[in-house]
Amino acid sequence: MTEILSEQEADLHGEVKSDNQAFARSDRTRLGVWWWTIDRWLLGAVVLLVVLGVMMSFASSPAAAARMHLDEPFHFAVRQCFFAAAGLGILLSTTVLDARGVRRASFFIWILAIGIMVVLPFIGHNAKGATRWLEFGGFSLQPSEFMKPALIILVAWMFSEGQKGQGVPGVSIAFFLYLVSIVLLLIQPDVGQTVLLSVAFGAAFWMAGVPLSWIAFMFVLGVTGLGSTYYLMPHVASRVDKFLSHGDADSKLDTHQVDRAAEAIAAGGLFGRGPGEGVMKRHVPDLHTDFIYSVAAEEYGLIFSLFLISIYAFVVIRGLSKAMKLSDSFQQVAAAGLFVLVGEQVFINVAVNLNLIPTKGMTLPLISYGGSSMLAICLTLGLALALTRRRPGTYMPG
User: Fold this and answer.
1) Domain layout of the chain by residue ranges
2) What is the pTM of this model?
């Protein structure tokens, strides 16, 4: 009698063959096992975003290069192609890790990133009043971008160890790692990344099943801390004042960048001006980085903009759905925290472009120009895909 296997069993045990696939399900090679255990829909969506990011870089590069008086119009596009190739390499190589490998990699990444952030005030590159980058060989590295996913995985690990009741002070260690990270972020200063990381940490904290009273305390503490930055950090006050005074004819604050981005989005209409035909991008200073969404909206229109957002929504929602089905508490909290981290960044960037919140200096994941952003987001999603791979005992039954 022919045994009928469920799709999940077939994926796990490799007992069904298919002549129409790149790999037979019975293929037990490392590559074959990877192919049948990875979420190929999520992987495909991420690769599509990388491709769209390269496409948008070619659209924005000439205007950005002209504004910076560079001779090569596609200077940023060529570099983005290099970053995209390196990012995909990191993404694919990271997805082969098991849970132990994810923890180990995250530990060393966090230690290295924190070490660089400690010396950054002394040797880092200062731009726009912040010291967030380490420059070498014509490239700049922002260590905080790599610290974020590593921290989320480490705190998820500590929460999981603390729940086992074996004397490990997991919650205390998790809070210590978090406090070290945000103190170094505020020294730079980088309030936007601090808010991003704090929300992701709070989400991991909540998913780990801690008491609601702790969550309420963290919320009050976070709101208080965020409000205090208005009075303690002049650049934060300036951004908030610009946001609140936007549209006020009597205001003397410079809202040029946000205004031009809004005009670019409005000019795109439903279908856009056409590839390379954008006009307002020539007047948006950070068009190839923080305001790449406005370039996409002007040249490709509202429909493309919504399509782009829908891809992000698919990645985050599908990722969270798979994370919630994981049977291991560490993998569940870590994977969900990583997808929350990506979703937050998308929300902040698009909201800034639409002038819904004050400017934050946050890139659009996989779309904005930037090596650190591209490599770090690929690392983040690679770790998340590694944690959600289908392995025996990984997912809860049903």
Assistant:
1) 29-387
2) 0.89
